[in-house]
Amino acid sequence: MWSNEAAKVLACLAAAGMATACAGADVTARAQGVCPVRPETAVTQIDLFDGDPADQALLAPDDDKRGSNTYSVKGVYDAGRSLTIRCHYGDASTDVKLVKPVTTCTYSGGDAHPALTCR
Questions:
Q1: Are 53 and 107 found together in one domain?
Q2: Count of domains forming the chain
Q3: How would DSSP label each residue in 2-40?
Q4: Are 53 and 69 within one domain?
Q5: By residue range, what is the domain housing residue 86?
Q6: CA distance 118 to 96
Q7: Using one digit for the tens of pLDDT, what is the confidence trace for 13-22?
Q8: For the segment 30-48, what is each residue's pLDDT rounded down to a tens digit?
């Protein structure tokens, strides 16, 4: 027999899966916020760009608190551009373009476990 807690977890996962599918969202697994999960390798560095990384418009954080950095990115979208996140995995990297506007991104985890969440 299933416990109430297990049933609740499964119901939430099913509902989240349906909501994601219905929204047509990217369903790539993301353990470190916006960076896709890669088997047997972890994110080693995360860069934020105003637009295409080829333009070299690397964004700087708004603050320099140890362990967490905040980036205000609303102005990027207000100007008609988009944010691109470059996720580094050792010698390889993946670019994730955030087309849907966000206002703030927060970097956490330091050098050991870098993570980025954007809202």
A1: yes
A2: 2
A3: --HHHHHHHHHHHHHHHHHHHHT------SBBTBPPBTT
A4: yes
A5: 31-118
A6: 12
A7: 333 333 333 3
A8: 444 899 988 889 999 999 9
